[in-house]
Design a protein that fits this description.
The chain has about 350 residues and is an alpha/beta fold. The protein contains 10 helices and 16 strands. The structure holds adenosine monophosphate and magnesium ion. The site of magnesium ion has 3 residues, from loops.
Length: about 350
């Protein structure tokens, strides 16, 4: 299958392209599209054959459920059997936007889309291209991130093409995404609301609307005792091919430890890399480090979230074998960044 890439600007959405994308979805095909978080791989959420294609294209385990994307709040009643007042409050505060809610599923949502669960994940994205696409496609788009399972989620259309070339007919290229990490997931089916995956909407922001919000205890742990409640959080994710270690501590000490370790790796002819920040960039020694990459500024957690997956992908593109990354506080959006970095590193961490 030939994969076409069509550019769409947020300001000037081409109806013809949306109609074509809508036709493909109704015919059971898959279309990749931009959202404000990362690129999604979309299929008709109510068509079991489309969901099966999504799992196949990604190489995703079929017990890992998909998020259903809608383009009008009212459509939540079409796919959920109960919508508690908390969902309305969260929607008012954060929809359209990077928040996914877990609710009891309606009968018409096939188990193939929800990984066999009787709950469903729902999101109403804010990206204008995503909204136009969902509407043109009938209103219910099942979409995981548009990467092959185990790779970082795509933040640029070129990474979607890298992973999906020949597997899907159309990629809608909306340029670089704004947020860069996947949506926050909150479960509203238990006794208390519970955060299952950290994202741009932080636990603090959710608490301001709902009061107390629990947190899945397995989220940030290296050796969790329980099973994560979001099935996707069980799998190893986002791992570069090289060996990635997170280093925490005072900036100058972190840099001197990394320079030393890279020196040792270099002596063994291994290709080395560092993921740092604008502030610390001058502290690293080009003589022993093949690739020094800035993830953004410590002054802006948003900048780190936006660049994180791109730099992780570049590690593989450049064939880096030994990689060190600086650590961040897990306050606010830092929790989402550290959750992804810890997974990428397989929880290999050093404190200096
Ligand atoms: P992705 O589409 O790649 O952002 O992954 C979707 C995430 O949502 C995965 O971690 C899923 O396990 C999680 N998810 C989807 N549906 C449910 C559900 N009904 N209950 C809990 N987690 C879910
Ligand atoms: Mg994903």
């Amino acid at each position: 299958m030939e994969t076409r890439v069509v550019f769409q600007s947020e300001q000037n959405i081409d109806r013809n392209v949306m109609e074509e994308a809508g036709r493909l979805i109704r015919a059971g095909e898959l279309v990749a599209f931009p959202t404000e978080t990362v690129y999604g791989l979309g299929g008709d959420a109510l068509n079991t054959a489309s969901s099966a294609k999504i799992y196949q294209a990604k190489g995703r385990p079929s017990d890992n459920p998909l998020i259903i994307h809608i383009c009008r709040f009212e459509d939540i009643y079409e796919i959920c059997s109960q919508v508690p007042p908390q969902a309305g409050k969260l929607a008012q505060a954060f929809w359209p936007g990077p928040l996914t809610m877990i609710l009891p599923k309606a009968d018409r949502v096939p188990g193939e889309t929800t990984g066999g669960l009787d709950t469903v994940a729902v999101r109403f994205p804010s990206h204008p291209v995503a909204r136009a696409f969902i509407e043109a496609a009938g209103g219910f788009i099942a979409a995981p991130s548009a990467n092959v399972s185990g790779k970082p989620s795509p933040t640029l259309a070129k990474y979607v093409l890298e992973d999906m070339n020949g597997k899907i007919p159309l990629i809608i290229d909306g340029g670089a995404v704004g947020i860069g990490v996947e949506s926050t997931i909150i479960d509203l089916t238990g006794r208390e609301p519970e955060l299952l995956r950290p994202g741009y909407i932080t636990r603090e922001m959710l608490s301001e609307v709902l009061g107390r919000v629990e947190q899945d205890q397995t989220m940030m742990e290296a050796h969790p005792t329980g099973r994560p409640k979001a099935p996707g959080m069980r799998y190893r994710h986002y791992a570069p091919k090289g060996e990635l270690t997170l280093v925490s501590g005072e900036a100058a000490r972190v840099a001197s430890y990394i320079n030393e370790q890279c020196g040792l790796a270099k002596a063994e002819h291994r290709k080395t890399g560092v993921l740092c920040t604008q502030e610390s960039l001058p502290l690293y020694q080009a003589s022993v480090i093949d690739s020094v990459k800035s993830m953004g500024s410590r002054e802006s957690q948003e900048s780190i979230a936006r660049e994180l997956y791109r730099v992780l992908r570049e590690c593989d593109d450049e064939g880096l074998e030994v990689i060190f990354a600086e650590s961040f506080s897990d306050e606010g959006l830092g929790q989402a960044v550290m959750n992804r970095l810890l997974k990428a590193a397989g929880h290999r961490t050093v404190e200096v």
